[in-house]
Amino acid sequence: MIQVQNISKNFNDKKVLDDVSCTFEPGKVNLIIGGSGSGKTVLMKCLVGLYEVDTGKVVYNDRNFSALSHKERKPIQQEIGMVFQGGALFDSLNVEKNVMFPLTMFSQMTLPERRERANTCLNRVNLVNVGHLFPSELSGGMKKRVAIARAIVNNPKYLFCDEPNSGLDPKTSLVIDKLIQEITEEYKTTTIINTHDMNSVTEIGEKIIFIYKGKKWWEGNADELMKNDNTELNEFVFASKMMQSLKKV
Amino acid sequence: MKSLFTKPEKFKVYLKQIFREMEDMGFGSVGIVVINSVFMGAVITIQSAYNIVNPLVPLTAIGIVARDSIIIEFSPTVIMMVLAGKIGSSVSSEIGTMRVTEQIDALEIMGINAASYLVIPKMVASVFILPFIVVISMFMGILGGWVAGDLSGACPSADYLKGLQDSFNSFNITFALIKTVIFAFIITSVSSYQGYYTQGGALEVGRASTKAVVYSNILILVFDYICTQLLLA
Fold first, then answer.
1. Would you say residue B90 lies in a domain?
2. Which residues of A touch B (CB under 8 A)?
3. What Å distances lie between residue A2 and A47, A192, B30, B42, CA to CA?
């Protein structure tokens, strides 16, 4: 479980996160939604330690992550898997080496063991015989799947996904969503997804947090989202005609 | 800077990276270094011959001038400035691209000291491999001068070879290699810094790359003067 307690973050004089508190539960797909510039990416970067919070704290299973030094954070960071918006695969490594990378750096596994584990993870994301390819040779959807394979290779307790569907067609988006949901159930991870794809929200959102102007504006599940009476949230969720028609139904 | 010199996560991985960088920087630079050195040696020889108008000055002076200017200045400084363009822009754009495509963030989230993982192998590799490249440059420069002098008739082989052996001071080579090590460190550290702190997109990666080359060249010239003042004056 990850607990966020009253965190704030400023860049120069601009308040980007303002007293945000929430809890992300294990074995569930937790979604952070919000418009562009609302602060959801900053929130995620604060959670994983890429940004330091100005006030408040992030707690991973009773361990105050915000108070730890970089060295002390390492054991927690090794329990984190992250899927970046663009995949963030290492250009100089092929797919297999990309997936093996966390194991190469931190495990005592032999090369055949690492290979086997990497290929198991690649099979899990439905990628076969692509280990020799380089990131530049992959499609957007394949890159995302390799990134997911790399994120789960260490059996993470916490899985973070930053806009996993951006730039993907609706069908591939659905495949990625389902994959993340299945992995969350299979590995019992605390999964946190940053998204503004309403399709994902209605399909896999077990717990949804809406960030508006740097504040936590609303919290609930997909059913509650469809019936809410929050003006700002409704403006965001039902902006498209498709979502408006869904509400009428 | 402090985070740069912390203990590596896995020494074996760093060692592999160092060898990979040595291959890229070393073998990848031989071609351009050989071409530059041969032609520059040839030009130095022909220009020296052109400038010696006094019949009392022996033609062996051309060999001495070519040897000393190539060993003391041309190979360690000019070739390192050429390499600042080649290696510096490559290092800066590689790290800069990793920054803007979140690859560095990915390393940091895994708990890897990204600055150390990316920069140290490049620094170590350059400091070890570039002196060899500079020695190749010295050899090829002197060879280019010999061939050009002989073919053009500006300096017969016998005079050139005699000049090469006249009043040779081996400290000049030590001096050149000391400069090379300093310049190698400058190129990789300045370029890595520019790449690591890139913010934005492709345009900023290009700008960082240009800055890396410009700053490296300026620092090479400044440190060339300092080294000359300290070691030769």
1. yes
2. 48-50, 70, 73-74, 77-78, 80, 82, 84-86, 88-91, 101-102, 104-106
3. 9, 10, 53, 69
Into how many domains does chain B fold? 1
Residues of B in contact with A42 (CB under 8 A): none
Closest CA of chain B from A218, distance in Å: 28
Instruction: Say which of A50, A73, A88 has its CB closest to residue B101.
Output: A88
Closest residue in B to A48 (Cα) is B109
**What percentage of chain A carries pLDDT values higher than 70?**
96
At the topology level, CATH places domain A24-51+64-79+158-249 in: Rossmann fold (3.40.50)
Contact of A42 with A162, CB cutoff 8 Å = no
At residue A155, what are phi and psi to the nearest 5 degrees? Answer: 50, 65
Domain definitions of chain A by residue range:
24-51+64-79+158-249, 88-155
**HSE-up of residue B222 (Cα within 13 Å, Cβ side):** 7
- Cα nearest neighbour of A147 on chain B: B106
Which pLDDT tens digit goes with each residue over A4-22? 999 999 998 888 998 999 9
ipTM of the complex: 0.86
Q: What is the pLDDT of residues B64-89, one digit of tens each?
A: 999 999 999 999 999 999 999 999 99
pTM for the predicted model, two decimal places = 0.87
